[in-house]
Amino acid sequence: MKRADTRPVRAGTVIIGGGNPIVVQSMCATKTTDLDATTSQARMLHEAGAGLVRIAVDSTKDVESLAEIRSRVPDANLVVDLQENYRLVTEVAPHVNKVRYNPGHLYHHEKQKPVRDKVALIAETAVKHDLALRVGVNCGSVDPEMAAKFEGADPPELDGVTAMVESALEHCRILDDLGFTRYVVSMKDSDPRKVIEGNTRFAAVRPEIPLHLGVTEAGMLPDGVIKTRIAFEQLLSRGIGDTLRVSLTLPFAEKWREVEAGKQIIADVEAGRFRSVPVFQDHGLNIISCPSCSRVENEAFVDLAFKVKEMSAYAKEYDITIAIMGCRVNGPGETDDADLGLWCAPTFVNLKKGEQELGAFPYDTVLDRLKAELDAIIQEKSPAGATS
Hints:
Sulfite Reductase Hemoprotein, domain 1, alpha/beta, TIM Barrel, 17% strand, 15 strands, 8-stranded parallel beta barrel
């Protein structure tokens, strides 16, 4: 399998890019403060073959737990996923090998401070503690300025790709200007076509930068692997991609399946075996759901996702998107583009129709309201509904 000539980026004991083997990674879904559960899951992912194991950290309590997890799983290469509070980087740095930050989330904390200054703190900390970085751009959280600047720049089926790519390129320039080059980049979307387009465009402009591939919120088995294969097979066969994650909604005890799926896709591409359809079929019911991480505020989210999939099967012929998100960090923004969106809080589920808030419902009753809204959309889309 041909590979792009990217520069090597070391993260702990693995090297990303530079012609080295593609690194498969995954993320813990358990609460970071649940030491036994998170230690067990980090060890499970490491033993399954994850070269990097990511853990979410949102508070000082999470940092304290991270330090203990590091001591319990010394052989795993740990990555921390920063969200709005970028300053936590100074606290997590001694315990990890790599840090991922989201450019879009830097705008939510200390809004008066220039983004470059925030990135400078992250980069300086990475140098001090011998860390690699990932600039992780996500479709649902592109920074507002980029989203506004490039609104309408893409055809409908690729909406938002230009903003995503330009955001990544901007942060590459910032890091380069700061003299920091030990970083990789990711541009993720739940639509494999956008993942293919975004990464292809970026690789054409900055071919030397290693790329982390991912189809975010790919959903459940088997659909999630199919969506991911569509993107990965297209990109890897062109030499694009140095590390990857298959993001699946799974019971917590089965997170190892992400690693297994990633390894299998790489092996298939290397052997010339291609299993996905050549063109993404964008018609019919589309269910997207986040892969779950320690920010999931109620594990019932996973059961709910499977119930939504089962309940909505009768709508499979309709062009409708349902999004199920597990937390308040990504849920509100990443359900806006769906026809129906659910983002899960500790004791209730927020239901949305597009950007319209429909209310908060208990976990055990939200399916009834969701079905009623789904039926209403089907009625609107049907010929009879259009003429009545």
